[in-house]
Amino acid sequence: MSNSATSRRVQDPRQQILDTVLVLFSERGYFATSVQDISRESGVSVGSIYHHFGDKEGIARALYQTLSERMSHSISRIIAQQGTAHDRCRGIVETLFDMTEAEPLVMDFMLYAKHRDFLPEEKPICSSRPFELMRSVIAAGMKAGEIRPMDLMVASSSLFGGPVRMIVARLDGVLQAPLPRYLDEVWDCAWRSVAAR
Amino acid sequence: MSNSATSRRVQDPRQQILDTVLVLFSERGYFATSVQDISRESGVSVGSIYHHFGDKEGIARALYQTLSERMSHSISRIIAQQGTAHDRCRGIVETLFDMTEAEPLVMDFMLYAKHRDFLPEEKPICSSRPFELMRSVIAAGMKAGEIRPMDLMVASSSLFGGPVRMIVARLDGVLQAPLPRYLDEVWDCAWRSVAAR
DNA sequence: GTCTATATCCAGATAGAC
DNA sequence: GTCTATCTGGATATAGAC
To answer: What is the pLDDT of residue A5?
Structure first.
């Protein structure tokens, strides 16, 4: 009656490794983390790690793609739930703030790590799917007249640049209070910067 | 009659090394740059490099401090020249944009590199002198009634977050046009986000 | 102060048994 | 698929002559 689904199963090694490197890369950075470290902390042997990911870069790439998809999903859900650019963008900022408090390491890796240094093939973060989604929301808001007409890159930088800097400050330990406490004030500033009226 | 001052003199090796690592660190990153690389590109021997900087980290630290002082100086000059928070902040953004075009590597290293990975002792960039100066301008502007009263960190993130994201986008090659062309539009958004009226 | 030659270490990656 | 043992290169840093 007891099978692998009912017994408290150990996570599959792939996920085990990804969970481990998220911590290590955030704590020490990619280059200061050796594959030996990853093996020791994850409990998975070096051989298995290479079997699953090919090389060290492959681990970082898999982590990046996994987290990127998670962020895209969260953002897509908000877009589906809300009807205006204002509400959609506010929802996105709120989610980013919540995620930063709940999973600071994820945010650290996605928004703060310099991927170009260890993933030279990857597109720059601001060309990645989550950021594309954000820009598409803004483009729609501009068309609908909610947002003043202007260069799309200027609008998205202005709207999300402030919140992103607050996230970075929080990750750096410069902000003592949790981000959601600043949400209303930050959003007020962000929206004023591009709002039509 | 010809002495070391009149002859076209080779730069002193310290500066030679700093010029070289700025290029290499920006192109490949700190960890992908070996001291051998630095020696080859700068024409200064490995022994001399260690004589001047102690260890590899010392090179990065010296570069960071040099550039940080240069930025602080530029910002201080603008603060002295202008009389209002509005004009001071606009001047700062304009200078940052100009610097990005004239010396992209400097901006890349100062705003984009993740110093924490290779300079663990250094304060986070947003606690560094240039950023402190920017915040002091904003604090004064708030006191003078130019800027709405709000959390200082929120105000500085909102005012400079947009411009910083534009700089990063430009360094990533995502913006084709030079930054100064966007200045008016970017500044308009930035100032609206915090302006009192 | 500058250089070359070298010591030392540890990284990423693989081989091959199980 | 997983593991241990090992290879190999290249990294930081130093020694010591000039």
So the answer is: 34
pLDDT score recorded for residue A24:
98
Chain D footprint bases within 7 A of protein beta carbons: 1-6, 10-16
CA A73 to chain centre: 11
- How far apart (Å, rounded) are the C-alpha atoms in residues A149 and B185? 10
Q: Which amino acid is at B11?
A: Q
Residue B178 tokens read as: 């030079």
Q: Give the model confidence (pLDDT) of A94-142 as tens digits.
A: 999 999 999 999 999 999 999 999 999 999 999 999 999 999 999 999 9
Measured between beta carbons, the chain B residues lying within 8 angstroms of A194 are 189
Q: For residue B29, is it left (φ>0), alpha (ψ between -120 and 50) or beta?
A: left
Q: How distant is the alpha carbon of residue A75 from its chain centre? A: 10
Q: Do A158 and B112 touch (CB under 8 A)?
A: no
Q: Pick from A168, A176, A49: which is nearest to B168 by CA?
A: A168
Show the low-confidence residues of chain B (pLDDT under 70).
Answer: 1-10
Measured distance CA(A34)–CA(A27) in Å, rounded: 13
Whether the CB of B4 is less than 7 Å away from nucleic strand C comes out as no
| Res A53 pLDDT > 80 | yes
pLDDT band with cut points at 50, 70 and 90 for residue A10: low
Round to the nearest angstrom and report the end-to-end CA distance of chain A: 65
Cα–Cα–Cα angle for B130, B132, B168, nearest 5°?
50
Contacts with A18 (C-beta within 8 Å, 6 or more apart), sequence order:
A59, A62, A63, A66
Residues 10-49 of A with CB under 7 A from strand C: 33-36, 46-47
State yes or no: pLDDT of A2 exceeds 80: no
Closest CA to B108 of B138, B69, B67: B67
Cα distance between residue A12 and residue A93, in whole Å: 33
CB contact under 8 A, A151 and B31: no
DSSP code string of B148-190: ----HHHHHHHHHHHHHHHHHHHHTT---S-GGGGHHHHHHHH
Q: Which domains can be identified in chain B, with CATH numbers?
A: 1-54 (1.10.10.60), 63-192 (1.10.357.10)
